[in-house]
Amino acid sequence: MKGRVYLVGSGPGRVDYLTVRAQQLLAQAEVLIYDALVDAALLQLVPAPCLKLNVGKRGGEPSVTQTEINRLLVEQGQQKQVVRLKSGDPFIFGRCTTEIEALRAADCAFEVVPGLSSALVAPLLVGIPLTDPVLSRCFAVFSAHDPDLLNWEALSQIETLVILMGTKHLPKIVDQLQRRGRSPHTPIAIIRWAGQPQQQTWFGTLANIVQQTAHHPLSPAVITIGEVVALHPFLQPTPTPQNELQQCSPDLPQPSTRVTFYSPPPLIGKTVLITRSVGQSSQFAELLQQTGATILEMPALEIGPPSSWAALDQAIAHLSDFDWLILTSTNGVDYFFERLTAQSKDARALAGVNLAVVGKKTADSLAQRGLQPDFVPPDFVADSLIDHFPNGDSLTDKKILFPRVESGGRNLLVKEFTDRGAVVTEVAAYQSRCPEAIAPAILKALEQEQVDIVTFASSKTVQCFHQMLGTDPNKLLNHLCIASIGPQTSAACDRLLGRVDIEAEEYTLEGLVQAIVQWARSN
Length: 523
Known about the structure:
Strand content: 15-25%
Mean pLDDT: 86
CATH architecture of the largest domain: 3-Layer(aba) Sandwich
């Protein structure tokens, strides 16, 4: 099939603000060529085999040349479905012209897919209308990347100004406008990381905004200037932010000098690296995003069928011989029922067999198949299963089927049940292995100290993480917090990574999120 290049606008960053068309194209992409400001969460929307190429440009840093980007688009777009993902809208400072010219010259098919521009989104998200029947009958959007090329005389006459790529030259922008007649009391807002969990906003006037923001990093940001900025207290989204602090100079009129600091979500500004199984759902990521965290996901464990189904198939053929079936993970549930179906059986084959599971997620997985476990221990670990097992002191001749990971895990369950008289049949239901290598984007984030917290939900993910990082992982982990879901995972962290900083009190994903939030607040 002949290829095609889709020049797609990603909007301000979050998945929530993608168009439906953009989501569909990302889900089908064979090659993704993306810019620096594209949110890392969007990279998770492409298929696993998709080739991902970062060609982002950031001021003062080495970057891929536009000529090389054009070459990549033509080379990949001749035969593959390529998504060229751009921040905001492709046609608003998106450098699309040269890319389209290169595609046309090579007779390469292309399509442009619009996105929400931060020029429109940023003011809206903080309650600033760009137009108003009285205060603003027009607005202008421009880049201040090179302010000396702009017609400041003309711009100063426009009621509302929206400026992109201008924070580096903020003093010059303010000076040029005041030189050409704009009042020093003119309201101004600077919205940083608009639409992202780490969004920040400064409100002030042309007279005081430079001093106000002097010691703060501002890029990337949208600057909005005009009387409409003063409307934000009345139009900002509800509920009204708590803990507002107004800093107003007595010699300047209100509300132009209003500066509002919002009470942020607990993990705002924190980047969390989630280690997980390949293909695992993003439930944990969603829970953390609700607390304001920026999420990076790292596949650290590959789950697959065992080397042979023979032992499990034989056990399933004689299910009625067993008193208990113990399932300690969702993987065990999934593969057990896969083989049950392969033998033309269903849940009715479990009549007379008691079901014990470890963990809420395992119980939920069982419930999706219309089954309720007969026993779930109060703590979501194998040790608790042993300590609270029904009639656990007298298990003589009780037959227990235990489908488990082929590569082996802790032998505590088998030993304890055997010591109490039970006959335990262990069968391989699935196997887990480490991916061959860490994704380059994740490794770069660790090397550049862009990760604040790394999470582990199993001791196996700790092992694989350690293996993929190489012989000396500690130099990449000194600056960040290590979070564990429970005691066995913590033991693996201590053994392989040298420490653990957070351990969930309740050994669930929800419990881990709560522990991370408590840590963030205490620090």
